[in-house]
Every structure is written in C-alpha cells, then in structure tokens.
Write a structure and sequence with these properties.
CATH architecture of the largest domain: Sandwich
CATH topology of the largest domain: Immunoglobulin-like
Strand content: 35-45%
Radius of gyration: 19 Å
Number of domains: 2
Structural class: alpha+beta
Helix content: 10-25%
Distance between the termini: 46 Å
Strand order of the largest sheet: 5-6-2-1-9-10
Amino acid sequence: MAGMKRQPLRLLIAALLVAVTFLAVKLWTGKYDGDPNPRARYRIEASSLKRDGTYTWLEIHLRKSGDQDHDMLRPVFLITSDGIEHEPADTTFAGSPGKGFTDIWFKFWLENADLKGKIDLRMNDGTLRVKKNEGAPATDKGGKAVMRSADWGKTWLGF
C-alpha cells in the first residue's frame, strides 16, 4: 500500500524535471529575436548586464547573419526608449579582417534608468530590438544578468 502512495509523487517529480529541463534548453537554444532585420547584417545572440552603482554595463553579442560584413565606417548606436543615442564604450571583434568578422560585442555604459524601456541597436542599414518590454530587468545578487531574448522578463541570472 505504501508503494502506491509514492507512485503519484514520483510521477510529479519526473514531470517537474522534464519541464525544468525543457525550459533550460529553450532558454539556451532559442533565438534572441525570431525575425532580425537583415539590413543590420548581424543578429543578437545574447545580451548581458553588470550593474555598477547607478550605472550598468550592457554588452550585446552579435553574430553575422548573411554574406555582408559590418561596415566599419558607419556609426553604431544604442537607442533607449527616450530616443537618446548612445555610442559603444568598447567594441570587440571575432574573426579576421581578411575573411570578415563573425562575431561582434558592443559594450555600453548606461544609467540604470536607461534600461527601463524598450532598447534598439542601430547598425549598418538596420535596427535590432535589444529589449522589447517595459520595466527594469532582474539581476542576481551581484548585479548580473544574461538575456537570451528581447523579453528581459526572461533573464538567465548569473553568468
């Protein structure tokens, strides 16, 4: 009789493990934006935050999505919900100048208030949605978060 009472509990635990595994796989393998602007020439892979007092480092990882390289002569801007354009504080490239850059990381130094609304990245001839929802993003106790989606309500806290 005791074995029969444990059966539903085992099934519940198994179902919860399957659901948690599915959610983790979905977060790490899903696309950041299902329909990135091809004129931007790159798509967002992930973005991360690291808070520092009343400011935050926002880093955006991009991966080449077509045949054209990034136009180094064109400016790149992060546009916050109030319409202010922010230039990158740092840029890192992966790949080679001869074969082209496969990945780019843009790093922006922002006030925490800049993160409360929608955020776009304008590069080349296109615009990519970095953050689509309102509100401040959640971070872990160390002030860090990794986002695998433009919906920053679904963060992966910690690195």
